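PROTOCOL LOG
Step 1. Enter all chains and additional molecules of the complex.
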Amino acid sequence: MALFKKIKRSQPESQSIINSSSMPTKTRFSPRPRIMRFYNMPRIIGRMSVVGEKESKGPVGKYFSKCETDDKMGEKTFERAEIRMFDTAVRGAVRDARMDIDDIDVMISGDLLNQMTTSSYAARDIGVPHIGIYGACSTMTEGLMLSAALVDSGYFSNVLCAASSHFATAERQFRYPLEYGCQRPPYAQWTVTGAAASVVSRTTTDTERFPRITMAIPGLITDFGINDLNNMGAAMAPVDVIIAP
Amino acid sequence: MSENSSAIKARNQQYNEYVETVTPKTSIPKALFHSFVVGGITCVIGQGIGDITMLIAPNLPKDMVSNITSMILVSVAILLTGLGVFDVIARQGGAGSFLPITGFANAMASASMEFKTEGLIFGTSVKLFSVVGPVVVNGVVWSTVAGLVNLIILGMN
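Step 2. Run joint prediction.
Step 3. Record the structure below.
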């Protein structure tokens, strides 16, 4: 009991020491850097991206692996089209890594829809254990970070991470019906029609030439008080990452 | 450091001011002109339909003619929505296209099209008023208020 009391008394003191001494900027978190360093060098050995027509005409259009000109991709609904796009990206990435689907240990993926419809249904057809993540715009990097951690720690040797979104399904989920005549302000964003997948694997003699993931820093949620629904760029621009102590 | 502390508020205000300076703006005179043209053309077409109806059937009462006119306008708006033309016009027209009765028709038709894939009852029927719901609610509420005010001031006649 005495020990418990002692700990309880000493806690606020140590907290105040951390806050006052080491960090001049005002932050409500402890200033300890939160960096993950991957010493076993997980590498991205296969990747595939599928995009819609609008994306393929953009400034980075030439870097995408495949372009789908039809928004519905021959399916009945936009959701099915997104699942198909996701499937194409995942299978393409596995092929790019010169592997078979059975070589993949786990898939970490996410999308924008309710209950992660796209990745769950795609994972059902692909037949790989699935970990769903929801990071909105950061889903892909979040997936890369987590898969690098899984590979680096040695739990798994080949992890697939994927993300997808579709303009039409996201509009229906978050905004107005497609044919509804509403005006967009000139700074409004469009949700990407696209899916991407990459295979993260541990370093062997075969994989040495591929890019490796050395470290990752999860960032803080920063809210600078942007209330405009359409101005997502301004809402997401401020970042708060503690890099150095 | 809560959300309401003065430091955070000052930071947010500063950031919002900065965002104001860098975001592109719509030019108001241009938008006004566009909505005036689109809304005006819609009204001229409506007037034309009314005049033609009166020419065809001169014995019809005036409110019947206006009913027929709005029915035709609504049908045309729904047809254009289905063909995927209406939202192209509305992107230019703004308020000029959604203030007339055509905007209401477009909002209902687009919602029913969008949720058709979820089934007739749980898709179309449930989501039909998802966009125009506020219009209906406010219409009912404020007409009730107006009726009550009318009743209090003028009494029952």
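Step 4. Note key features.
Chain B has eight helices and no strands.
Chain B has a mean pLDDT of 87.
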